[in-house]
């Protein structure tokens, strides 16, 4: 979700996003929620895994409540549905403990993704990238990190 002024308190935009999430729940997609704190209350039952199960014969359907606007509706939840909530490390301390307890927690950095991707490359490609990395770090050391906008420990590989 964006932080644009017109999106922050836009109920219609929140409903659009919740409708997309609802569709993903029904079809078993994995969603990544970034900057979505303003709709977390709408997904209270989903996050708490409060599900109703309706079974008839061999068929079984799972439902959870989702608040969309002023209405609360039952939404079918596909068994493959997964939800990942991304929280910035700087905001982590401000998140209520009960909310955090609902999720598995992992700390990932740009460096983690770089290293994972690097290991999937051939040895030759890895050597090329390591050589480039050494040259870049030498270049940064020569001129000074302060001259590179946005450069900090979390952006360095």
Describe it.
It contains seven helices and five strands, in the order ααβαββββαααα. It is of the alpha+beta class and 157 residues long. It folds into two domains: 96 residues, no CATH class; 38 residues. The strands form two sheets. The chain has a three-stranded antiparallel beta sheet with strand order 2-3-4. Strands 1-5 form a two-stranded parallel sheet. Strand 3 and strand 4 form a beta hairpin.
Quick description:
The chain is an alpha+beta fold and 157 residues long. It has two domains: 5-100, no CATH class; 110-147. The protein has helices at residues 5-8, 11-27, 44-47, 89-92, 97-100, 110-119, 123-143, and strands spanning 30-34, 52-56, 59-68, 71-76, 82-86.
User: What summary fits the major beta sheet?
Assistant: 3 strands, antiparallel
Query: Helical region count?
Result: 7
What share of the residues lie within helices? 40-55%
The whole-angstrom Rg is: 21 Å
Shape: elongated
Low-confidence stretches: none
Report the mean per-residue pLDDT as an integer.
88
The arrangement of helices and strands along the chain is HHEHEEEEHHHH
Classification by helices and strands: alpha+beta
What percentage of amino acids are in beta strands? 15-25%
Number of beta strands: 5
The number of distinct structural domains comes to: 2
> What's the end-to-end separation, in Å?
28 Å
Main-sheet strand order equals 2-3-4
Which labels suit this protein?
three-stranded antiparallel β-sheet, 2 domains, 157 residues, two-stranded parallel ribbon, 41% helix, single chain, elongated, alpha+beta, 20% strand, 7 helices
